[in-house]
Amino acid sequence: MAARGYGQFCPVAMASEVLGRRWTVILLRELMAGSERFNDLRRGMPLISPALLSKRLGELEELGAITRSVDAATGSPRYRLTEAGEELRPVIMAMGTWGHRWLEAQLSLKNLDPSLLMWDMRRNLNPDPLPQRRVTIQFLYHDVTERRSRFWLIVDRDAEDGPVDLCIRDPGQEVDLYVSTDLRTMTAIWMGLDSVRDALDRGSLQLTGDREMQRTMQTWLGLSVFAGETKRVGGRGMSA
Amino acid sequence: MAARGYGQFCPVAMASEVLGRRWTVILLRELMAGSERFNDLRRGMPLISPALLSKRLGELEELGAITRSVDAATGSPRYRLTEAGEELRPVIMAMGTWGHRWLEAQLSLKNLDPSLLMWDMRRNLNPDPLPQRRVTIQFLYHDVTERRSRFWLIVDRDAEDGPVDLCIRDPGQEVDLYVSTDLRTMTAIWMGLDSVRDALDRGSLQLTGDREMQRTMQTWLGLSVFAGETKRVGGRGMSA
DNA sequence: CAGTATCCGATGCGATACTG
DNA sequence: CAGTATCGCATCGGATACTG
What we know:
Two copies of one chain form a homodimer. By secondary structure, chain A is of the alpha+beta class. Chain A folds into two domains: 11-87, Orthogonal Bundle (Arc Repressor Mutant, subunit A); 107-220, Nonspecific Lipid-transfer Protein, Chain A. Chain A is built from twelve helices and seven strands. In chain A, a hairpin with a 6-residue loop joins strand 1 (66-70) and strand 2 (77-81).
């Protein structure tokens, strides 16, 4: 694919040589979102091959943007942003803001993926408006093939591995709230293009169970960090 | 190169599908720097093939980031950023700022290119500190092969095509200031890694001609827009 | 000047399987 | 869980030549 590099001394060109590599930006986004372990990173970018992920991690480490360290307790490797890596946050955020403002929403809603959505929701869910006790929320996407249509979020503020756990098998606990909807609706809500109330009114979303949890869903359901940005979308959107 | 696209609805991923394409970021930088014509754009990215430049321009137009219009006077096409394209400026700037702060300076100084440097300098030169009359400045890079070692900047505030013209052939005018140096020194000054004074003191830079222009060189010589950023550089720099 | 057309080569990357 | 090893091909894009 050509002589790798643009032959330019301009800092934009040099940064672009790094950030232009496939998956690198997505990987940084995952790291910024807080994932530190190899397989957690994979969950956030399911289409990457382990070989390539390993390679990209190596490049970023070589570059000084991340460090690889071994967790003393578990013995498992952890990848963390260095100061240099942390300073890429404005770049990634600016990209996301622009993408959200200007890229056709339709396009987002073509790349639907229930696992990815649930993984994102797990990360941003806000336990505060929920009951103090441990609660289980079941999501059912009735337009998704059987195998990936049901998910359970278990919220427990006192859990060791973060307050929210995502299951793809029935955890066998009593469910406090059932959420039944289609993938597109839930994704649109997550991206701030739709709201819980509107979806309920339209009948695109059904809630069953704890009334209080139903009422406060819009507040505990964390949204995409870009959901607040005003959408513009002037052009014809991406061709792909 | 694989299924084009990351299969993600995240705005970062979608923006990255556009900005990750080779040369796209460089092209945007050129447009943001003010180039509007096909061959001016090429001068700012000499290693791109005309076919690919044409393709990228088409993609950005399709996307709604630029418009192509035909100049009524000259009949030549002009490419300009739309509002959506203009809003990519923070992204490009953030990339440049990061690149300047964290990427090994050595690396920049490996991608030396006299034509590119002169083309950048032409753009950012500040005519104000210079004499009111038309002045000619000759640059001689004594470490560069004969054919690309001499350049002339002609500064004329009243010229039709911008105040500064760059020539690669002797324009046959009396030269007001001779600048003799090596390519690395001049690039380092341009990037804010070195100063006119220091280079003069070290003997890496020689000036002959108009004393006043010599004295004020650091002020009329416009620097890279990133020259003000503090360099950090923690890691081992890029592998390339 | 402002592109198009064509060809072909390198290689990035996806897929899959395997290991400590 | 956290990767490595291997293979093969699609495709991106570089080179060159040509045109209105």
